[in-house]
Amino acid sequence: xxxxxxxxxxxxxxxxxxxxxxxxxxxxxxxxxxxxxxxxxxxxxxxxxxxxxxxxxxxxxxxxxxx
Length: 67
Prior knowledge:
Layout: E1 10-18, E2 21-27, E3 31-36, E4 42-46, H1 47-64
Antiparallel strand pairs: 1-2, 2-3, 3-4
């Protein structure tokens, strides 16, 4: 597994596209940053917020299935 270090975040281009621009993901020690390739505007999300969102989505899926 790749270690995420403060001096060199892990940056990857994904297979997700917004029109013609690829989504770039940067993994940093305390957050994840996403941006479109060739753009300067970036959005940073705390890992805790991502986990909360995943739990909410799982809960909603459970409700939709009638669990």
